[in-house]
Amino acid sequence: MSEMVKVEVAGGGDYFDAYLATPSGTPKGGVVVIQEIFGVNADIKETANWLAGEGYLALAPDLFWRQERNVALTDGSEDEWQKAFALMNGYDGDEGLAICKPRSIICAPPDVPRSAQSVFALAAAWSISPLAAPMATPTLLITASA
Length: 146
Hints:
This protein has helices at 42-53, 78-89, 93-98; strands spanning 2-9, 14-21, 29-33, 56-61, 117-118, 140-144. By secondary structure, the protein is of the alpha/beta class. The chain is globular and about 40 Å long.
């Protein structure tokens, strides 16, 4: 199953949307799928769905939500490329990725092990690292979209 969900940002009263792909059985773990400069588009959703098919709960947060919510571009036109680069250039990576640290997102029940981030072009500087430590107190909560 897959759906768009709202992720509430603790302490700020704000939220961002994310694509959540859920496996059919008990999740092996959770994966945060970081978007490319084109937003949470069909390719990112396909990646999240593939991960769910492999048994992982996959969450793809909308990193551009502070500039424009629910961006889903392709590489099919010059206009989309220009918009993607404008969004990327206006994106504050430190602020944006701070909300996506896997220990800050509840993406599986407490007894399910956490996995790693799946990193794409926008966050290429982020390393992929297994989460061996138990999850700290969450700062974000996933709630169903209305």
